[in-house]
Every structure is written in structure tokens, then in C-alpha cells.
Inverse folding.
């Protein structure tokens, strides 16, 4: 995405208002908001902030191109960057029964990371507020009461440090915070083009549970159509361990051929990833002037792996607090009640107390999809949560809820 030459950076950016570490979805989104006169709070006579965005120069450490999906009520501030959106979703149960629903007032959206990076890069280049720097961050700490210090190594090997009033770190924490349960949502997807029309361009298949299920955890297909002959087709698992590429490829061939019946098709590209699903508590403030945002700040919903929408809510709140002159502490992505419900589900899945495919099939069969999406966004009230809870396997879930407070949190998340 380019950057400022190291010589210029060392001279011109010894102290800044904001330092953002990491140029993924969270880092780019916060930079985009701070670069805008309205959301950054510097419209009129107020001077714009001085912001530095630090991105690793090592290509192997950057996330591969991928897609980000979420749902929201239109209009949204990212509508111009959206690659595609859909009004309906479908879920298949293990026996082949389908539940399809209009999700109004929501629409399901997709952004391609490469598109987002290019668009935000153009925005930052035009605004001149955010300086992008390629550097390896080696440490972050409070420097004094009114500043924090970020220590880096530039691509040429020179050591450099920048002092900032506020630092926002979006890098995944290592190790993970202590947890009772840690599952991995792991997936591989193909961007396919078929010879004959095979997809409904108005409907996203959120979960296709007709794939073979593991002994413990969950597996499902996921289909995001772009037109009648093109779609992203993914195989996804919830388990303690990921698969090898060959195993994903075999699963995808079987899903595309035996389940979807795509006939002849061409794989034009692939994406693969891993999302941590855990009841660990991710601290959002790790110093007087140092904060974590995005997945590092708890924006991943433990029960689903969705992260993008909560990240946007979080960085909007940060930008608004900064613009108002308040301490820009990232807010919790989800309520304590939502996190508690997710903790119960994760343990019930991990222990095998509930069968994953049956659990999710029942959930979508007995609830409106729009209500479920509101629930998964953490915006339902307690009585709505209770009604949804009654559509799950109540006995195993209650047993898990009762035992959960007594389960020790450990470094590996087991218990």
C-alpha cells in the first residue's frame, strides 16, 4: 500500500497524535475515520490529527487476500465499498431440508480485502493526515503520562521509535488470554465459475449442514453467489485443530460435486483462514494510552467468528471519542450476557454435549433469520434471548451453564 520513505519518517514523525499498529480491517478502518474531517473531528478551524499507520514490511506476516462479510440495515457508510449484497439467506439441515428467509431490514454484505485496502489507501493519500510506514513493531509501552512509545525496526534495519498520545494495536495477541474453551473456525473457499447456471444470486447459503459431520464440533458448507454461474463456495469446520490443504480440497470437491451438483466448473481463486472462537476475555486497554482494537480487542463473536461489523462499531466509537476530546477507549464489542451465552455454546460443542449440526439446524428452523441475525449482533433484549434459548437443546445447555463457573481457565482453553 505504499508508505513514507524511512528518511522522511524519522525526521518528520517523532511525535504524533495517534499511532495505529497493523493495517488489517481494524487498523485501516480507524485510519479512514480519522482521516475524514467529520468523523475525525477536525472540520472547520480545528487542526487535523497527526496519525501514523504502521504495517509490517514482511509479506508472509500480512493476511492473504480475503473477504469480509456482515449484515446491517441500509444505508451504511461502507455501501460504496461493498462488492455485493443479498436480501435473503438459506440454511440446509443434515437431511436436506431448507429454511430460507428474507432478512429485512438487514442485507448481507461482502467486501473484498484487496478492494478495501486500495480504496482506503486512496483516501489516506488524498487526505494527507495519515502517514503509512512499513516497519516491524518490536514493543509498545507507556512512555510518560501524556504519551506512549512504539519501538520499531525499519526495512533497512534502522531502529526507530514514535511517541503518540494514543496507540491502537490491532495485532493478534500472543499468547491468547486464559480461556475455558478454545475452538478454531477454519475454512477454505473456492471462487468458482460453472458452465451452467447453478446459483441463486439473491440468496446466501449461510450454513449447509449436508456435509459429513465430525465426531465433535461442526462442519458446513457456505455459498456466496455473485451471479448464476459464479460464487464463493467454502468448507468450514469448528474444531480444536485445522485440516491440511489436501483435506480441505477433498472436502470442497465432494461438496461442489456431490452436494451442490455444480457439474463442470473452474476454480478461479481460493481463500483460506482460521478464526479463534473462545470465551477468553480480550483486554481493550493495556496501558494508560495503549488500546487494542478489532479481533485483538474482542470484536470476534465467539459463537460465529464474525468480526467485521463489530470492528466497525468499535472504531467508530473510538473516532467519535477522539473527536470529542474524550479518552478513546474501545467499547466492548458484545454485552456480558452475549459473551456468557457464547461461552455456554462453545463448551457444549467442545464437550460433544450438543451435536453441532442439529443445534444450528434447530436454531434456524425455529426462529426468524432476521431475529437470529439481530441476536448474533448482540442487539436483542434478554426476553428475546430467552425465547431463542428455548429453541435449543435445553437440558444439555442448562447443564453446561451450571458447570461453567467451576471450569478453570487455562492457557490452552481446556477444562
Amino acid at each position: 500500500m505504499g508508505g513514507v520513505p524511512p528518511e522522511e519518517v524519522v525526521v518528520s514523525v517523532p511525535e504524533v497524535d495517534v499511532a495505529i499498529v497493523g493495517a488489517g480491517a481494524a487498523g485501516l478502518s480507524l485510519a479512514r475515520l480519522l482521516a475524514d474531517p467529520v468523523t475525525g473531528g477536525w472540520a472547520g478551524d480545528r487542526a487535523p490529527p497527526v496519525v501514523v499507520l504502521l504495517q509490517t514490511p514482511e509479506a508472509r506476516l500480512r493476511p492473504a487476500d480475503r473477504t469480509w462479510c456482515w449484515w446491517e440495515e441500509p444505508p451504511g457508510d461502507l455501501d460504496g465499498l461493498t462488492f455485493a449484497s443479498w436480501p435473503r439467506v438459506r440454511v440446509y439441515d443434515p437431511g436436506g431440508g431448507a429454511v430460507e428467509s428474507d432478512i429485512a431490514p438487514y442485507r448481507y454484505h461482502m467486501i473484498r480485502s484487496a478492494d478495501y485496502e486500495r480504496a482506503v489507501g486512496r483516501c489516506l493519500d488524498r487526505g494527507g493526515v495519515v502517514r503509512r510506514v512499513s516497519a516491524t513493531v518490536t514493543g509498545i509501552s507507556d512512555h510518560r503520562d501524556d504519551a506512549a512509545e512504539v519501538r520499531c525496526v525499519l526495512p533497512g534495519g534502522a531502529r526507530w521509535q514514535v511517541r503518540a498520545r494514543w496507540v491502537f494495536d490491532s495485532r493478534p495477541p500472543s499468547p491468547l488470554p486464559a480461556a475455558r474453551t478454545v475452538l478454531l473456525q477454519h475454512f477454505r473457499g473456492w471462487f468458482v465459475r460453472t458452465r451452467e447456471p447453478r446459483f441463486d444470486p439473491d440468496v446466501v447459503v449461510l450454513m449447509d449442514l449436508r456435509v459429513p459431520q465430525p465426531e465433535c464440533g461442526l462442519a458446513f458448507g457456505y455459498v456466496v453467489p455473485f451471479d448464476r454461474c459464479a460464487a464463493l463456495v467454502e468448507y468450514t469446520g469448528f474444531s480444536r485443530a485445522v485440516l491440511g490443504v489436501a483435506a480441505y480440497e477433498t472436502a470442497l470437491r465432494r461438496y461442489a460435486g456431490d452436494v451442490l451438483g455444480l457439474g463442470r466448473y473452474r476454480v478461479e481463486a481460493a481463500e483460506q483462514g482460521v478464526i479463534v472462537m473462545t470465551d477468553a476475555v480480550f483486554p481493550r486497554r493495556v496501558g494508560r494510552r495503549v488500546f487494542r482494537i478489532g479481533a485483538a480487542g474482542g470484536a470476534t463473536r465467539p459463537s460465529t467468528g464474525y468480526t467485521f461489523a463489530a470492528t466497525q462499531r468499535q472504531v467508530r466509537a473510538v473516532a467519535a471519542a477522539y473527536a470529542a476530546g474524550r479518552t478513546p477507549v474501545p467499547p466492548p464489542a458484545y454485552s456480558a450476557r452475549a459473551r456468557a451465552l457464547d461461552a455456554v455454546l462453545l463448551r457444549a460443542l467442545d464437550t460433544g454435549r450438543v451435536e453441532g449440526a442439529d443445534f444450528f439446524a434447530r436454531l434456524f428452523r425455529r426462529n426468524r433469520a432476521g431475529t437470529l441475525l439481530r441476536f448474533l449482533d448482540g442487539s436483542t433484549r434478554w426476553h428475546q434471548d430467552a425465547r431463542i434459548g428455548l429453541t435449543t437443546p435445553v437440558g444439555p445447555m442448562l447443564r453446561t451453564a451450571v458447570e461453567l463457573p467451576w471450569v478453570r481457565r487455562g492457557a490452552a482453553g481446556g477444562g
